[in-house]
User: Which sequence fits this backbone?
């Protein structure tokens, strides 16, 4: 199985997620029972280590003439991208819910509404929300900052 994101800080692979017999191992020793928790932890450790995280583009379709192995690798890349996007959206929901003392469902609806009204993908706006939790210079739409009434 491929690793999630590889981020090297001080010689340690802080953002590498590996399958173990009892769950998932993050970096050099943090073990968690489920993959989503492992990916969240990997992202947090990578962020704390100061390793920049590029905004990855979603993989497109596999070429028509690709072999079965190439198509399967491409499918794996698509699934990994989708899972990572979901993790970022879940983190953003948590940030918004805590920041505005609202239910997670309401936070997701606000995030989705804001993305739609701006013609942006929810995952892209979610990355900005997560980034805003550590960088006060990250600009967010008014309805996500709490300076405007929700729709």
Assistant:
């Amino acid at each position: 199985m491929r690793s999630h994101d590889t981020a090297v800080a001080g010689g340690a692979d802080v953002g590498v997620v590996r399958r173990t017999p009892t769950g998932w191992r993050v970096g050099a020793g943090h073990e968690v029972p489920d993959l989503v928790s492992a990916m969240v932890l990997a992202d947090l450790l990578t962020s704390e280590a100061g390793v920049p995280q590029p905004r990855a583009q979603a993989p497109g379709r596999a070429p028509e003439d690709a072999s079965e192995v190439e198509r399967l690798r491409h499918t794996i890349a698509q699934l990994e991208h989708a899972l990572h996007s979901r993790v970022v959206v879940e983190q953003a929901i948590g940030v918004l819910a805590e920041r505005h003392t609202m239910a997670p469902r309401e936070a997701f609806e606000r995030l989705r509404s804001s993305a739609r009204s701006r013609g942006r993908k929810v995952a892209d706006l979610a990355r900005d929300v997560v980034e805003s939790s550590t960088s006060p210079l990250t600009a967010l739409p008014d309805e996500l900052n709490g300076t405007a009434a929700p729709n």
